[in-house]
Design brief:
This protein is an alpha/beta fold. The chain has 2 helices and 6 strands; from the N terminus they run βββαβαββ. The structure holds magnesium ion.
Length: 125
Amino acid sequence: MKRLSLKNKNQPSIPEIRADIIAVDLDGVLAEYTEWKGPEFIGKSIPKMLERVKKWLKEDKEVVIFTARIGTKECVPYIEKWLEQNGIGGLRITNVKEREFIEFWDDRAIQIIPNTGERVDGKED
Ligand SMILES: [Mg+2]
Protein backbone atom coordinates (compact mmCIF):
# COMPACT_ATOMS: atom_id res chain seq x y z
CA MET A 1 0.00 0.00 0.00
CA LYS A 2 1.52 3.26 -1.12
CA ARG A 3 0.75 6.12 1.18
CA LEU A 4 1.79 9.70 1.34
CA SER A 5 2.39 10.99 4.78
CA LEU A 6 2.50 14.63 5.60
CA LYS A 7 3.20 13.82 9.19
CA ASN A 8 6.32 15.26 10.74
CA LYS A 9 7.38 16.22 14.20
CA ASN A 10 6.29 19.82 13.73
CA GLN A 11 2.80 18.94 12.50
CA PRO A 12 1.75 15.73 14.26
CA SER A 13 -1.96 16.32 13.75
CA ILE A 14 -1.99 16.25 9.92
CA PRO A 15 -3.66 12.99 8.89
CA GLU A 16 -2.12 10.47 6.56
CA ILE A 17 -3.28 10.86 2.93
CA ARG A 18 -3.88 7.71 0.92
CA ALA A 19 -2.21 7.71 -2.48
CA ASP A 20 -4.25 5.03 -4.20
CA ILE A 21 -7.99 5.26 -4.06
CA ILE A 22 -10.55 3.31 -6.08
CA ALA A 23 -13.63 5.37 -6.98
CA VAL A 24 -16.86 3.43 -7.46
CA ASP A 25 -20.10 4.79 -8.86
CA LEU A 26 -23.30 3.92 -7.03
CA ASP A 27 -26.18 3.87 -9.53
CA GLY A 28 -25.78 1.14 -12.11
CA VAL A 29 -22.51 -0.10 -10.60
CA LEU A 30 -23.06 -0.95 -6.94
CA ALA A 31 -26.83 -0.58 -7.01
CA GLU A 32 -29.35 -1.48 -9.67
CA TYR A 33 -30.57 1.61 -11.52
CA THR A 34 -33.07 2.23 -14.27
CA GLU A 35 -34.30 5.78 -13.73
CA TRP A 36 -34.29 8.50 -11.10
CA LYS A 37 -37.03 7.85 -8.55
CA GLY A 38 -35.98 10.27 -5.83
CA PRO A 39 -33.23 10.54 -3.23
CA GLU A 40 -34.78 7.94 -0.95
CA PHE A 41 -34.75 5.23 -3.59
CA ILE A 42 -31.50 3.37 -4.18
CA GLY A 43 -31.74 0.05 -5.99
CA LYS A 44 -30.81 -3.40 -4.80
CA SER A 45 -27.13 -4.13 -4.49
CA ILE A 46 -25.36 -5.83 -7.38
CA PRO A 47 -23.67 -8.84 -5.75
CA LYS A 48 -20.65 -9.13 -8.03
CA MET A 49 -19.67 -5.49 -7.54
CA LEU A 50 -20.47 -5.46 -3.84
CA GLU A 51 -18.26 -8.50 -3.24
CA ARG A 52 -15.49 -6.90 -5.28
CA VAL A 53 -15.58 -3.81 -3.08
CA LYS A 54 -15.60 -5.92 0.10
CA LYS A 55 -12.56 -7.82 -1.20
CA TRP A 56 -10.71 -4.56 -1.82
CA LEU A 57 -11.50 -3.37 1.67
CA LYS A 58 -10.18 -6.63 3.14
CA GLU A 59 -7.01 -6.00 1.17
CA ASP A 60 -6.76 -2.60 2.87
CA LYS A 61 -7.50 -0.69 -0.31
CA GLU A 62 -9.35 2.58 0.02
CA VAL A 63 -12.66 2.82 -1.79
CA VAL A 64 -14.79 5.93 -2.19
CA ILE A 65 -18.31 6.17 -3.49
CA PHE A 66 -18.27 8.54 -6.45
CA THR A 67 -21.80 9.65 -7.17
CA ALA A 68 -23.66 12.61 -8.60
CA ARG A 69 -26.31 12.00 -5.92
CA ILE A 70 -24.21 13.86 -3.41
CA GLY A 71 -24.91 17.07 -5.33
CA THR A 72 -28.25 16.97 -3.57
CA LYS A 73 -27.45 17.16 0.14
CA GLU A 74 -30.64 15.38 1.17
CA CYS A 75 -29.34 12.29 -0.62
CA VAL A 76 -26.40 11.75 1.72
CA PRO A 77 -28.23 10.05 4.63
CA TYR A 78 -29.91 7.65 2.20
CA ILE A 79 -26.58 6.72 0.63
CA GLU A 80 -25.00 6.22 4.06
CA LYS A 81 -27.89 4.01 5.14
CA TRP A 82 -27.70 1.96 1.94
CA LEU A 83 -23.95 1.42 2.40
CA GLU A 84 -24.51 0.37 6.02
CA GLN A 85 -27.28 -2.05 5.07
CA ASN A 86 -25.02 -3.63 2.47
CA GLY A 87 -22.04 -4.17 4.72
CA ILE A 88 -19.83 -1.34 3.50
CA GLY A 89 -20.89 1.42 5.84
CA GLY A 90 -18.59 4.32 6.52
CA LEU A 91 -17.11 4.64 3.04
CA ARG A 92 -16.43 8.19 2.04
CA ILE A 93 -18.88 9.67 -0.47
CA THR A 94 -17.85 12.31 -2.98
CA ASN A 95 -18.59 13.80 -6.37
CA VAL A 96 -15.18 15.42 -6.70
CA LYS A 97 -12.50 13.82 -8.85
CA GLU A 98 -9.27 13.55 -6.90
CA ARG A 99 -5.68 13.14 -8.02
CA GLU A 100 -5.36 10.08 -5.79
CA PHE A 101 -8.03 8.15 -7.71
CA ILE A 102 -6.27 5.35 -9.56
CA GLU A 103 -9.44 3.73 -10.93
CA PHE A 104 -13.02 4.73 -11.70
CA TRP A 105 -15.61 2.00 -11.86
CA ASP A 106 -18.52 3.52 -13.72
CA ASP A 107 -21.30 2.40 -16.04
CA ARG A 108 -21.12 5.42 -18.33
CA ALA A 109 -17.39 5.96 -18.70
CA ILE A 110 -15.62 5.52 -22.01
CA GLN A 111 -11.99 4.65 -21.39
CA ILE A 112 -9.44 6.49 -23.50
CA ILE A 113 -5.86 5.43 -24.21
CA PRO A 114 -3.83 8.15 -22.48
CA ASN A 115 -2.68 11.04 -24.68
CA THR A 116 -4.26 9.69 -27.85
CA GLY A 117 -7.99 10.40 -27.86
CA GLU A 118 -8.43 6.76 -28.89
CA ARG A 119 -11.02 4.58 -27.22
CA VAL A 120 -9.68 1.52 -25.39
CA ASP A 121 -12.56 -0.54 -26.79
CA GLY A 122 -11.47 0.32 -30.35
CA LYS A 123 -14.91 1.59 -31.34
CA GLU A 124 -15.37 4.73 -33.40
CA ASP A 125 -17.63 7.51 -32.12
MG1 LIG B 1 -23.92 5.23 -12.82
